[in-house]
Amino acid sequence: KNTILIWLLVLFLALPGLGQTPIWTDDFSSPQGWFLADNWVIASNKLEFYWSPSISNFDQEALSPLISLDDNIGELIINQYLDVFSGTPDESAEIAIISVNETTVIWDYVLLEGSWGISSGSDLTFSLEFAGQDIRIRFRTFGLTTFNWNWWDVFEIKITTFYNNDLCVHSITGPTSVEVNEEGTWQVEVKNL
């Protein structure tokens, strides 16, 4: 019985896989390349919009450095948290992709809906349609007053790409069977296709 399970594992691992690989990541250890409007800062390893100083009729953005995308582009993953002081329909948060030809809003959040995510960050995932292009990511806040915000924290941004048949198990060496509650060690050789 154990031998069958091991051979099934070997067969499964020997099949070519689909790999999702990060090609661009920002953990906000540095503000280099970012354009930040008045209430936006990069500090303590996060991008943050903060309500103070209070500004009326505001429209502020944080704009990423230029990002060159791969031809096999996958997903944009943003780990963030929005803390709302007073939910109103008059203030919004927006994420957009700016390419050579257009600005595409991919997320729009009205503060009336209250806080978004958990304080340590929640992932927001988007499929990207900008293969082979240069883009910027724009975080925008706008409305009647920043006083209705507490903050918008962005902890990490990750862009992935998909490579078909990226890795393949070339060989597996180790015991052909193990007894119940017995440990076994295998060596797996992986080949990058």
Layout of helices and strands:
Elements (H helix, E strand, L loop, with lengths): L1 H13 L3 E9 L8 E2 L3 E4 L2 E5 L5 E8 L3 E2 L4 E12 L6 E8 L4 E8 L11 E6 L6 E12 L3 E16 L2 E7 L13 E6 L1
Antiparallel strand pairs: 1-12, 2-5, 3-4, 4-12, 5-11, 6-11, 7-10, 7-12, 8-9, 8-11, 13-14
Key terms for this structure?
193 residues; mainly beta; 6-stranded antiparallel sheet; 1 helix; 7% helix; elongated
Strand content: over 45%
The low-pLDDT segments are none
How many strands appear in the DSSP assignment? 14
- H/I helix tally: 1
Radius of gyration: 23 Å
**Subunit arrangement of the protein:** single chain
Principal-axis shape: elongated
In terms of structural class, how would the helical and strand content be classed? mainly beta
| Portion of residues within helices | under 10%
Report mean pLDDT, rounded to a whole number: 88
Distance between the termini: 33 Å
Topology as a string of helices (H) and strands (E) = HEEEEEEEEEEEEEE
Largest sheet: 6 strands, antiparallel
What does this structure look like?
- This protein has 193 residues and is mainly beta.
- The chain has one helix spanning 2-14, and strands spanning 18-26, 35-36, 40-43, 46-50, 56-63, 67-68, 73-84, 91-98, 103-110, 122-127, 134-145, 149-164, 167-173, 187-192.
- Strands 1, 3, 4, 7, 10 and 12 form a 6-stranded antiparallel sheet that branches. Strands 2, 5, 6, 8, 9 and 11 form a 6-stranded antiparallel sheet that branches.
- It is elongated.
- The two termini are 33 Å apart.
- The model has no long low-confidence stretch (mean pLDDT 88).
